[in-house]
Amino acid sequence: MSEYFKGISKIEYEGPNSDNPLAFKYYNPDEMVGNKTMREHLKFSVAYWHTFVAEGVDPFGSGTMIRPWNDIKDPMGKAKARMEAAFEFFQKLGVDYFCFHDRDIAPEGETLEETNKNLDEIAQFAKGFMKDTDIKLLWGTANMFNNPRFVHGAATSCNADVFAYAAAQVKKALEVTNDLGGSGYTFWGGREGYETLLNTDMKLELDNFARFLHMAVDYAKEIGFEGQFYIEPKPKEPTKHQYDFDAANVLAFLKTYDLDEHFKLNIETNHATLAGHTMEHELRYARINNMLGSVDANQGDLHLGWDTDQFPTDIYMTTLAMYEILKSGGFTTGGLNFDAKVRRPSFEPADLFYAHIAGMDAFAKGLKIAYNMIEDGKFDKFIEDRYGSYREGIGADIVSGKVGFKELEKYALNNNSITNTSGRQEVLEALLNQYIVK
Length: 438
What we know:
Strand order of the largest sheet: 5-6-7-8-10-12-13-14
Radius of gyration: 24 Å
Number of helices: 16
Structural class: alpha/beta
């Protein structure tokens, strides 16, 4: 087997005083944080598409990435070389999981039958590497946005033939994910949205999307797939309005169509910012509704209005994200998948390691800070005290459902003194700084 990342050995932990860009400063996989190791808490995963498929193309220029495996002309030969490079990378980086779209790992053929044959062949090729390395599939998914057939969407397409093709594609992707022991399967509605309501039957499209997901649930049961289904919220891009706009919108959709018991959310940082939210907002909403499943770990550029998918290096974001994840009880089937890509000028193979190391270190540091915040309980105590009025008197009656408008009016008429207390936002932000910088 060829070596694609020559001169790079297994990435080791060297501690915060190291100046070696090919070493971890904060991620020490065997270090205990509470009753779990960092490795168990964080469950890092590499996104196959950005790391091994992307060529650095943008609307203003051709690809810049130096990727030896992409120089191979034969599509199946390229797919196998890419798989070899991927598992070399996983082992040298020291991650336990990866994620893929069906079209990332195997090329599309002239017919659906040929396409499925290609996917089966590469999946068996991957299975050998997985057995030899004990690297696992965090989740699989289907690419239903690149091919022109999906110009109007997939499950929400106005063309029933496209709906049928998408169903066949997901059927196969589910089978492959199941065969590879995937912990989950993600639905990212790449083009499930609209550009203008002037040509859109929104009700039919949403109904069809729900029908599609119910079919997937039924087929998963039929083949014995026990992994977790995820939906990934995204507000816009490539369509003006994606149906899975944000966590709240997705939860409302799932409950409307009786799908909520079958799905959890795969939350992405850059999608949260595109929706006008913080990452911690989306994670909190998912957590308090018992819907937090997995995370696509990246960050966006707040000066740009699109999905830049940068590697996460913001310690404030990683801290507050890990705070929510720990509060939810940690990952079960999900993990931290680096749905992130190196910048177009970062085109050398070694840059893939630099970027992932930076992201892994940022989340490792965030994990330790968040754990300390929870253990100290200062933020919890502040919130508990702030809402203390709901644990006694009229507040307790409100929470327990003992009163209605008439009783509350009577209470308000006899209560001529309302006293509020400060929210102390600046104090709490300063306290957060203390945890981060100490």
